[in-house]
Amino acid sequence: MPIPFIQTRALEYTYTAEDGQAISALRGIDLTVGRGEFVALIGPNGSGKSTLARHFNALLLPTAGEVWVDGLLTSDPRHVQAVRQRVGMVFQNPDNQIVAGTVEEDVAFGPENLGVPAAEIRRRVDEALEVVGMTAYRHHPPHMLSGGQKQRVAIAGALATRPDCIVFDEPTSMLDAEGRRQVLQTVQRLNAERGLTVILITQNMDEAALARRVLVMDGGRIVRDGPPEEVLEAPEVEGLGLGRPFAAEVARRLRERGIPLPPGLLTVEALAAALRCTFR
Amino acid sequence: MNLLLPGMYFAADTVLHRLDPRVKMGAATVLMMLPFAARHPLGHLLTVGLVGAAVLLSRAPWRALLGTLRTVFWLGFFMFFFYFFTTPGRPLVALGGVTVTLEGVLAGALQVYRLCLLAVIAALLTYTTSPLQLTHGLEAMLSPLARLGFPAREMGMVMTISLRFVPTFFEEIETLSRAQKARGVDLSSGPPWQRIRNTVPVLVPLFLSAIRRAEDLAVAMEARGFRSQPHRTRLYRLTLTRADAIAALIVLACGGVGIAL
Ligand SMILES: Nc1ncnc2c1ncn2[C@@H]1O[C@H](COP(=O)(O)OP(=O)(O)OP(=O)(O)O)[C@@H](O)[C@H]1O
Ligand SMILES: [Mg+2]
Predict the structure, then answer these.
(1) How many domains does chain A have?
(2) Residue B224 maps to a domain
(3) Which of A203, A220, A248, B43 is the S-S candidate for B38 at Cβ 3.0 to 4.6 Å?
(4) Nearest C-alpha of chain A: how many angstroms from B177?
């Protein structure tokens, strides 16, 4: 078990709607995410994924229970900036999270808020843009970039505070195929090469299959937690109507036609290897 | 973009482009006051000379600068005629009951000359200073007021974000109008009341999406540690160079001489 980085204990969260009605969005979450993990978070619409994610960097504070980030209690007002420095967030809409008029000034926004000295901001901005491969665009205004490029700028913006973890809330759902590929590649690389803890919220099961651990939420609870091979094909998860990874769907149809294939084939590579075995 | 609209930034690398935005804004203010404050013709000559030199230095296309004058054409036209007919003095010609006076012609011409200079100076400022630089400059100039409780930093943030979203909203208007056109709604012709009514299906979703964006952006900014706190640092700090000092001196000296004459 890796060193715990984010921990929640009996976490509950209740929204108060405009008409005064209470909406219980999280109903008792006990979760530990270790340092350097790559976790996918899936679940139907309204199951509480975004609400949970916003507890990881103190955008929301628990109605009941506790959240610790790197040993810091998020509900302690003195820890808020420290928590936000440690956990970055990238959101769904690429247009609605870029603040400044040029790429590099946007990336500088986080460190500026944390009071980092100018020379150090410069270093971090250059490094973050290098990591996401956007150095050549540093003087561009955001509206001249593609969706995938904007999301990579958003990632650089999150990286510039030198976080240990980035939470991605459906970062690819508004992108075209190429943008999606660019962003996912960046996410995977950050996790593999820099040991960044990644929490990826997604509606796409092929993306979930990239993680080493999948959490399934339903009705404000975590209903399943395990490696993708076990979780994504579990009958109760399939019952939530989230779909299957492409390779898993192909494997299922082949099995229906009488081709014997082992379970847990989530990627095209795994499927191809299994088929080669079967027909040898 | 080969079309240079009034108020648009014209990216180039000239002395004027490199000047500190604060100096440029200050100089523009002085230059804009000169045509009103100068009394002696030499003072006006000095002003025109200075603005002319700035135009040459900016390498802004002539056509574009003349184009900015078009934006003030009607205002100038009416002002000219207002002074033309209403200034008492030595009569030149009488046109069916109204008398045109020499003083009237001169006063009208003076107003038009002032208006043209104002337009050219304002255009020069925006041609040679990016919106971003303007924002930084304004923020820096307002920052002494922060001690008096004026929200200078917040104002800067507001300006930055507004500028950042202008192109986004234009794109959105474009998309929404195209959607209306695809439904056969004509937005550019027909009686005025109909045209106004036809823009409603464009404006309402635009407004809703703006609110949506504002909410998203607020969350994203908070996630990146934005608070209305005293110690934010900046990636760029405006620094004055020798060129800035020289430019400021020239403009101030000319301003002083122009008014004193
Ligand atoms: N600001 C809010 N005010 C009131 N209720 C809210 C608010 N935000 C979310 N909710 C409710 O809380 C529940 C969980 O919402 P949440 O956005 O966390 O779900 P989600 O899993 O992220 O859904 P999606 O897949 O649509 O993004 C939903 O029932 C939702 O209607
Ligand atoms: Mg969500």
Answers:
(1) 2
(2) no
(3) B43
(4) 19
